[in-house]
């Protein structure tokens, strides 16, 4: 199947009853600046582009939100339990991006989309949510070209920094995406230039 742009991505997600049910569930929690991101979106795109009939299993379903008023990891765990009570077989992961800069030892993020733009891979820097009429909204702070071209590249935030690029390289090894999506192309060598090590 072909998928050429953001509109196509949104179409395939809106046609996926399972994804829409999950999006509606998370929407019902009314979290500020919420998105379901990363593999939830990326894997759907790659599955379609590979012509897979079945869904590739997800190691987790990443729900992010941004709330400066309650920066508490315990609240995230409570939300995970509540989501698990609705969909007990799903691997929920909930993170408030207003505190994740502390975990990642970087400058504070200003929004969920800002946090997404600083994910390791451009193909992972994607999020979806529903508007008030349950239309799918797509956030792609690094664009959709790489994910649609089945290319794994570091985000601008990771490029040129040896410390971050080591994280990127380690993820390529541990995730081993090519074992599932065989058409994927990895981009590595040229990305170690202009070192701006922390």
UniProtKB/TrEMBL annotation:
Pfam families noted in UniProt: NTP_transf_6 (PF06042)
Protein name as catalogued: Nucleotidyltransferase-like protein
Annotated source species: Pseudogracilibacillus auburnensis
Lineage: Bacteria, Bacillati, Bacillota, Bacilli, Bacillales
